[in-house]
Amino acid sequence: MKTAAPISERLDDVEAKRDSGRQKIDWALEHMPIVSNLAEEFEAEKPFLDQTIGMALHVEAKTAALVETLANGGAEVAITGCNPLSTHDDVSVALDAHPNITSYAEHGIDDEEYYEAIDAVIDHEPTITVDDGGDLVFRIHEEYPELIDNIVGGSEETTTGVHRLRAMDEDGALEYPMFNVNDTPMKHLFDNVHGTGESALANIAMTTNLSWAGKTVVVAGYGYCGKGVAKKAAGQGANVVVTEIDPRRALEAHMEGYDVMSMDEAASEGEVFVTTTGNRDVLTADHFEAMQDGVVLANAGHFDIEINIEQLEELAVSTQEVREGVQEYELVDGTRVNVLAEGRLVNLASPVSLGHPIEVMDQSFGIQAVCARELVEHGDDYDAGLHEVPDALDREVAEIKLDAEGIDLDELTDVQREYMNSWRHGT
Length: 427
Hints:
The chain is of the alpha/beta class. It has 17 helices and 15 strands.
């Protein structure tokens, strides 16, 4: 079954890459109190003995902290990337040096190599899966259904992946339990808002060396990711336009002070476009033809489907890389449309990308870690299908973070607790 080899067997200068990756991971761990706290617990208690964890994630330093935490907790871990451009090869090599970890993740691979690496992870016969985008889960269901009976469960962290899993669950096609990490409060209130908002804008700015001040920025979608991008762009002096399909989210954006309009109208208004929908064909030929000269297009959704690159290529009379990570498409009327990171996830796939801030990912990976522990300890309590993360796990991660920050909370008195839990108290 396995066709891909571990990354350490494919690259040159492995020792130098290992040292570089180790340095990045150690720096991340210094700023990840949640994962570090759980790492101590897992190393002492070894909850993942006899478990094999298959992972398809963005393989960079913060991710590596989670991976090593699970491995040091007794798991055998096999990991590959969930996006061809988001892997940091030196981090992947450093992970592969761990005795309990095999990493197949490599930057810049093509689609065939991407799925060969996923197949190689599956060849380890995982009992738990941890996914970004759902490709690992769907590959198991479609190509390796004989392995499903031995899988305790898994978790999915992205909006796109949860959309796919929800549709799969509604069709009765999801055959083992999956935790919806994306929609738990510790994920969407922080990772989606602050993580996506800060990292998408930072990577666009670093890739282009352009300012936000005074720019008209069109944000497609006003979910938690879109809210973060809009909020952070406005905070840096941009004029923000929001496009939406949901009337309540559109009204929310309007009442928070943003201009709200259809993409057909916004296409001629924007100077920078950031897609955050998780859906396909958000920007298409009609929009490209209406855009201003020099416009910048970036995708902050998981897959490279939100900007229809094929239609843009058909419209273009010429194309060239005008800056590392920036592909310029010149249309017949001379308009130049600039696409960042090939339309892939801009906060991880552009050449300068470092992903979300470390402190933000500490929270999300803390949720991933306690979900894996929950599956080992109480997996029999969950039927096949998509499940919300138990609130107690979400609160546990928040409490670890607050304790690390030295922040104290008030506690309810017995009288207050009785009042809140009783229906007998009135005026």
